[in-house]
Amino acid sequence: MRLFGTSGIRAKYGAGITPETALAVGKAIGTLSKEAVVGRDTRTTGEVLEHALIAGILSAGGSVIRAGCVTTPTLALCARENKCTGAMITASHNPAEYNGIKLWQENGMAFTPQLEGKIEQIIEKGAYKKAEWKGIGTVRNTSPIEKHLKLITEFSKIKRKITVVADCANGPASMLTPYALAKAGCTVHTINANPDGYFPGRNPEPTEETLKSLSSAVKATGAELGIAHDGDADRVAAVDEKGSYISGDKLLALACAHYLQDKKGTIVTTVDAGLIVEETVEKNGGKLILTRVGDVAVAEQIVKTKAIFGGEPCGAWIHPSAHLAPDGPLSAAFIAGMASEELLGSRTKKMKEYPIVREKITCPNEEKEKAIERFSKAVKKMEPDKISRIDGVLAHIDSVRLLVRPSGTEPAIRVRAEGKSEAKTKKIAAEAKKLIEDLMAGQ
Ligand code: MG
């Protein structure tokens, strides 16, 4: 039985996630751990799931530390601080009607698929501990935001006072990011900084489209930077001093360059990162390690390779000198530090832009893996220089970087091609799409 996907449990409330699911996960956590810290984002279904999850943990004899409404990185830090399991009730960047549960280890790193498998097994077998009346766990409350604020203030390096607009997505970052930036030395304006689980300001996923009001606010206030988060603030996004959106790849490349200017070392990113990230790390004397998509994979590789930084183009960045969870508010302070040395628009002006072609092929969920497997063999016809199977199929063909992966959210296969020549990039993307369609048609 699979409950967990690439980033915990995440589904529409009432369908894949219900109070019953939270109760079962809570009972499994209480079976495995003596103590767990529980937090939630601002979603309207957060509290009902929180109560069910806590009831489950207590019934199995586990004790609970209640962190309340906090960002995901705050919860992860709180798990590390208390050396216990962490359970965050969130659906991250998904719309308001979604919710989910993401689990954290006592070292502050997300649960690996193996650990999630243990929880699934306990639930499947119903192998829960059942505490007697005198063995029921206890609940105590904690307010972990101050500690997170302190960590960010210590981490940030702002060279001069800049003005920043923070778009908190009506999520738990509303209680953290504006204060963190102000303490770090910025003048802060805010939008969408009232916690509201209906997400009335914008969709919780930060994209060029959803950050239009941030762009306008930067222009209207004459600010020098705009930063934004997703619903639970493990991600960061940014607009420059002109209010122009900076793509996730470019922002990640800027962060890599900034790290490498101080210290050479290893940087971890995911296979879906763009050419600009690869080039920037190489140009600045760093070593780039690619891993499968998802912040857990990035964290695992960071630990394994003792990397100085790791991040995904979606804006989930891990700064291992601070902790091992992707941290949006900490990343926002990091970006403000970069902007205080040289504004982001001036930095991105020097960056190359490569054509990217994206294709989507409809494919039933149960056939995705088979289609990718067959494509990994068939792609040899396209004479690639190298093929990697870290996640899906990554092939370098005629100076084009081609990535074919199953979609994590839709019954579809996604094709992403990026190269220096637009004509070649389009040609390779079209060939890959045709090849997959032919394979699926059984030709
Ligand atoms: Mg998130």
In short:
With 443 residues, the chain is an alpha/beta fold. The chain has helices at 19-32, 46-59, 72-82, 113-125, 145-155, 177-184, 212-221, 248-262, 275-283, 295-305, 328-341, 344-348, 368-378, 422-440, and strands at residues 9-12, 35-40, 63-69, 85-89, 98-104, 139-141, 163-167, 187-191, 225-228, 237-239, 245-246, 266-270, 287-291, 309-311, 317-318, 356-362, 386-388, 393-397, 400-406, 412-419. Strand 9 (225-228) and strand 10 (237-239) form a beta hairpin.
What this model shows, in words?
With 443 residues, the chain is of the alpha/beta class. The chain has 14 helices and 20 strands. It has helices spanning 19-32, 46-59, 72-82, 113-125, 145-155, 177-184, 212-221, 248-262, 275-283, 295-305, 328-341, 344-348, 368-378, 422-440, and strands at residues 9-12, 35-40, 63-69, 85-89, 98-104, 139-141, 163-167, 187-191, 225-228, 237-239, 245-246, 266-270, 287-291, 309-311, 317-318, 356-362, 386-388, 393-397, 400-406, 412-419. The strands form 4 sheets. It has a 6-stranded mixed beta sheet, sandwiched between helices. Strands 8-7-9-10-11 form a 5-stranded mixed beta sheet, with helices on both faces. The protein has a 5-stranded antiparallel beta sheet with strand order 16-20-19-18-17, with helices on one face. A hairpin with an 8-residue loop joins strand 9 (225-228) and strand 10. Helix 1 crosses helix 4. The protein is globular, with a radius of gyration of 22 Å. The mean pLDDT is 96. Bound molecules: magnesium ion. Residues 92-93, 230, 232, 234-235 line the site of magnesium ion. Magnesium ion (MG) is lined by residues 92-93, 230, 232, 234-235.
